[in-house]
Design brief:
CATH topology of the largest domain: Rossmann fold
CATH architecture of the largest domain: 3-Layer(aba) Sandwich
Number of domains: 4
Mean pLDDT: 88
Radius of gyration: 29 Å
Strand order of the largest sheet: 7-20-19-23-21-22
Structural class: alpha/beta
Helix content: 25-40%
Low-confidence stretches: 1-11, 124-131, 214-226
CATH class of the largest domain: Alpha Beta
Strand content: 15-25%
Oligomer: single chain
Distance between the termini: 48 Å
Number of strands: 23
Number of helices: 21
Length: 661
């Protein structure tokens, strides 16, 4: 407890050097650009750090010219720092002065060709330095050598922590202690030579390690696995526990005919469909019961044959609102509507005919977004590649995995239809490496197809997000506010192309889908072919119900799924999973500005500001920080040290920004 009159010191990781030491550091240097890190691991404030102003005053007292200054959040985040500093350092700058811990100093030194010097020492460590997912490169020795070594730390990068040059044991540039490690001193010599400072270094006094200064060696390995792969393919991402072993081996089973289905007229992006049936009407499987109400909309079809018993508002499972729904009592006969019949073969169909079939079949993105597929198949820009998303990166879910294994030919047929429709040159089926059986099968299936290949992607969440997938596979960056077509790509989901295949080959519109029912608290997990409108409660009951008391049920996966407070809601076109998992009772505490959310955000945003601005109702601030670019993948919330419900705050901000004039 802090006694009265005492002040709680922030955990800051660095402290500005004293005036006399700074005067020595600045001797012989001029035309300085100053970069200060807005400290991490502290009470979250947006105020500028006082060390920057203090240094500028000292520089002026010593007659130094300052060409400019910048203050940067999480300076050790090399990806974001490089972008923020681009074009900022003016011509005529001879030295870059960095006020940060050793991590930030080394990050800037690696990005600059001009000399970088440290104006601070790394100390005051009181917790997990390295909580941000940055490679360990500072040992908090409180005696920074970076000014004399060109920004490369001899304490960390040299296996022997030598401070006066090579030991002579390096072979082919590799350390004799650790052959996987480059010799730190060879790197130091090369950088100093490039900057014309090698002779100066060789003529300086011998460096002595001062062990009287505090040294805390407690950087743990708990983020090592994440660090190694966090930048592979695309920036950020996380590696949550997959738990797919619960259902990945279980073959598809057709769920029994439901007695009653409640089919929402709004289960797609855009305008709700308008009902074209009335109470007491007899309907058949595949019959249109709702007409698309706008360009961005989708028709709805009956999943059973029987009698319309109500057209009324019913609870929507993901929005929580009451939406108009068509309620049908099944007659158990599954009688097909007369319109359900095969179309011409794929080679005989024109692109426009395929688009019409997809539109009239009510096919939407079945990965969860629900965007009308017919709109996606009419891009207003040239498209050269179709990416078929078989990643299914959400933990627990295995619906698309089973579709790949059990409907491989239909998946390929649907992909060929999309390739033809948009005039693409090729199709790539992207499957994460945690599905080796699907990879092997699809590779065999497309071996003789010239314009379709399988791409095996290293497992990482949220790889299935469109923009991440495009960057990972194509190396293309979708512009801010842009669409995949802007970079010549269309992305589609596995179950979506299966639905396209069904629509063309059998004439069946989208009236059923594969749903994974799983989780540690689901008595009988499995993968089921379920008719749209089927009650979630009936589905769970069929699986033996839920075990345990403190359980949360979600529609979707654990990362992006929606909590179901009422199980009397229907399976929709985008319902790829129903999961029963432990309830998280962790309570949020104030942000400690650790920077982990900025490290893992695949959209390269700073989610910690969204939480702060949402609490302040500073909607303009959220807009300025590009909240609308957020894909709500929940990586930030998953890794948040303070367990702040970031996504709910982001959604509130998005809603407010949309309402701004």
């Amino acid at each position: 407890m802090v006694k009265e009159g005492e002040q709680l010191e922030n955990y800051t990781k660095y402290k500005l050097k004293g005036r006399d030491e700074l005067a020595s550091v600045l001797a012989g240097k001029d035309n300085l650009f100053v970069i200060a890190c807005n400290k991490c691991f502290k009470e979250f404030e947006t105020a500028d750090e006082p060390e920057c102003g203090e240094f500028l005053q000292i520089a002026a007292e010593n007659g130094k010219t300052v060409t400019g200054s910048a203050q940067v959040d999480f300076l050790c985040n090399s990806t974001q720092t490089e972008r923020k500093l681009q074009g900022m350092i003016p011509e005529g700058t001879e030295n870059v002065v960095v006020i940060s811990c050793g991590l930030g100093i080394q990050t800037v030194a690696a990005l600059q060709d001009i000399p970088v010097c440290a104006a601070s020492d790394s100390l005051n460590y009181r917790g997990h330095h390295g909580m941000a997912l940055t490679k360990k490169s500072c040992d908090a020795c409180a005696q920074c050598y970076l000014n004399v070594t060109g920004g490369i730390c001899p304490i960390v990068d040299c296996s022997k922590s030598l401070v006066n040059g090579q030991c002579g044991g390096a072979k082919n540039g590799k350390c004799e202690v650790d052959s996987s490690k480059d010799c730190a001193w060879e790197k130091i010599y090369q950088r100093l030579a490039k900057q014309g400072r090698l002779e100066e270094f060789l003529n300086q006094p011998v460096q002595i390690r001062d062990y009287s200064k505090t040294s805390h060696k407690f950087v743990t390995d708990y983020v090592k696995a994440v660090r190694e792969n966090r930048l592979e393919g695309y920036y950020g991402g996380v590696h949550p526990s997959e738990r797919k072993e619960l259902t990945e081996h279980i073959a598809l089973e057709r769920f029994p005919e439901p007695e009653i289905v409640a089919i929402p007229l709004s289960m797609h992006a855009g305008a709700p469909a308008k009902p074209v049936v009335e109470v007491n009407d007899e309907v058949k499987v595949g019959q249109k019961i709702g007409e698309a109400a706008a360009f961005i909309s989708s028709p709805i079809h009956s999943s059973v044959s029987g009698t319309v018993i109500a057209i009324e508002p019913r609870l929507h499972p993901t929005s929580g609102a009451q939406v108009m729904s068509v309620v049908i009592r099944s007659d158990g006969k599954d009688t097909l509507h007369e319109s359900v019949k095969p179309h011409k073969d794929l080679d005989s169909l024109t692109p426009d005919e395929i688009v019409d079939i997809v539109r009239e079949s009510g096919i939407v993105g079945m990965g969860g977004a629900g965007f009308p597929t017919s709109v996606k198949l009419k891009p207003n820009k040239p498209v050269d590649t179709i990416l078929l998303n078989g990643c299914e990166c959400e933990p627990l879910l295995t619906a698309d995995h089973r579709v790949l294994l059990e409907f491989a030919d239909d998946v390929i047929y649907g992909l060929r239809a999309i390739i033809k429709t948009v005039g693409a040159e090729k199709g790539l089926i992207v499957i994460e490496d945690n599905k080796p059986d699907a990879v092997e099968l699809m590779q065999a299936k497309v071996a003789d197809i010239d314009n379709i290949d399988v791409v095996v992607a290293k497992t990482k969440y949220p790889q299935g997000a469109e923009k991440m997938l495009i960057k990972r596979v194509m190396g293309r960056q979708v512009p801010r506010g842009g669409l995949p077509a802007d970079v010549g790509v269309v992305v589609s989901n596995i179950s979506t192309v299966k639905a396209i295949s069904d629509a063309i080959q059998t004439g069946m519109p989208l009236v059923e889908r594969v749903v994974t029912v799983t989780g540690e608290h689901m008595k009988k997990p499995g993968n089921y072919i379920v008719k749209i409108g089927t009650s979630v409660k009936e589905l769970i009951d069929y699986c033996g119900g839920i075990t345990g008391d403190d359980v949360t049920v979600k529609m979707g996966g654990p990362m992006m799924g929606f909590v179901l407070s009422d199980l009397n809601v229907p399976i929709m076109k985008g319902s790829n999973g129903i999961i029963a998992v432990d309830t998280d009772h962790t309570e949020a505490v104030p942000c400690i500005k650790c920077g982990r959310c900025a490290d893992v955000c695949p959209m390269e945003l700073s989610p910690l500001y969204f939480a702060k601005y949402a609490d302040e109702e500073n909607w303009q601030g959220m807009k300025d920080m590009n909240v609308m670019d957020c894909i709500e993948c929940r990586c930030c919330e998953y890794i948040c040290s303070s367990k702040i419900p970031l996504v709910s705050k982001i959604k509130a901000g998005k809603g407010a920004v949309r309402g701004m004039k």
